[in-house]
Write a structure and sequence with these properties.
single chain; alpha/beta; Ubiquitin-like (UB roll); 4 domains; three-stranded mixed β-sheet; 11 helices; 50% helix; elongated; disordered C terminus
Length: 380
């Protein structure tokens, strides 16, 4: 019994020492893993902080350094250090996520525009992520006429796995096509405010139903960038914006869909005349004329005139409404070919009737002068 108890105590002591040693090793290993993870996190945060600091320092402090010294070497040295730190961080532009609002259907012309922008921005792939000039990228996108506004932000993904991933998230808000302007060599697509969107030699199917505008061929055919063109055509854009409101009011209040508009500037004032063409209930073309910025008060009377003409079964071809408190209506007239046909046929009919009457009178006179016996006439 004594030997057995001694052996049992000895074995228990060794077992407890072994368990204690194993638990100590396990704690030491866990602490090492914790320290490695924490150290990696601290280094990552330090590198990121230094990258951000040097990025803003390069953009905002170097201008003051130029004023303080004329020697170029301090600036170059600091730039080289900043660039080296950022390069050491390893953050490169790996992707560009481009979204267009409103969302367009497949085959829409804006899909090709977005593809062109993606191809143009591909030159930034592989460049240092924090050194990208977002204002430059934004200005490059805004130079496209169809772009109304842009929102860009950096997406710093994958930083915890080695600072090896970075992308740009770009949201583009596009303009909405409203008119097709007849240009000198092509069609120009503009929005409801007269802003240039695109040129098209052939009208795409989605834009084939847009109203046509004539009379602005020269200004919209100028070889300018979209930004410069919109800046130069401020007066024309004002007319287009007013015209867009008129067309929308005619559609909502009078139930008229305008097919085309001819814009004529008034030489006596700073206004313009809108010659709008549309189809009436009989699918016949009617032209209505309004004066820019003075059409709102005349829509109600215009609607009354249309209903009155329809009730009297009068088909108008032109309705002039650019004058104050007066309307002039041109009725439908017979075709020129029908008028010519009638005028040519009238003398022939008159001549035939005269010759017929003359022949009857002559025959009666001959019978009086030379009477013929009945038996001779009978035997011929």
């Amino acid at each position: 019994m004594g030997f057995k108890s001694f052996f049992t105590r000895k074995f228990a002591k060794r077992s407890s020492e072994k368990n204690l040693k194993f638990s100590y090793q396990t704690k030491e290993k866990n602490s090492d893993d914790y320290w490695r993870g924490g150290r990696f996190l601290v280094i990552s945060l330090v590198v990121t902080a230094l990258s951000i600091i040097f990025f803003f320092a390069e953009r905002h402090l170097f201008s003051k350094m130029d004023e303080a010294t004329t020697a170029p070497w301090p600036k170059k040295m600091v730039q080289a250090v900043a660039h080296g730190v950022i390069e050491w961080g390893g953050v490169k532009l790996k992707g560009i996520e481009l979204e267009i609002f409103p969302v367009r259907a497949e085959g829409d012309p804006f899909a090709k525009f977005a593809s062109d922008i993606r191809e143009r921005l591909s030159i930034y792939y592989g460049q240092p992520f924090w050194l990208l000039d977002l204002e430059k990228v934004k200005a490059e996108i805004l130079n496209e006429g169809w772009v109304k506004s842009v929102a860009i932000r950096r997406s710093f993904l994958g930083a915890a796995t080695g600072l090896s991933n970075g992308s740009l998230k770009i949201k583009i808000f596009s303009r909405e096509p409203a008119f097709l302007v007849h240009g000198a060599r092509s069609w120009i697509v503009i929005d409801s405010e007269g802003n240039f969107i695109s040129r098209a030699n052939q009208i795409p199917g989605d834009w084939a139903t847009l109203p046509l505008i004539y009379g602005l061929e020269e200004p919209y055919s100028r070889e300018r960038s979209p930004i410069e063109l919109n800046r130069e055509l401020s007066k024309e854009r004002e007319f287009v914006s007013d015209l867009s409101q008129l067309i929308l009011a005619l559609k909502d209040q009078v139930k008229i869909d305008v097919d085309s508009v001819t814009l004529q500037k008034d030489n006596w004032s700073s206004e313009a005349q809108y010659h709008l063409k549309f189809k009436n209930s009989e699918q016949k073309e009617v032209e209505a004329v309004f004066l820019s910025h003075h059409w709102n008060a005349r829509l109600q009377s215009f609607q009354f005139i249309l209903s009155d003409l329809q009730q009297k079964k009068i088909t108008p071809t032109k309705i002039l409404g650019q004058y104050d408190d007066r309307w002039f209506i041109r009725k439908e007239e017979p075709l020129v070919s029908e008028v010519k046909k009638i005028t040519k046929a009238a003398p022939a009919i008159k001549q035939a009737s005269n010759s017929k009457a003359t022949s009857k009178k002559g025959r009666a006179k001959m019978q009086k002068k030379h009477p013929v016996k009945k038996d001779l006439k009978k035997h011929g």
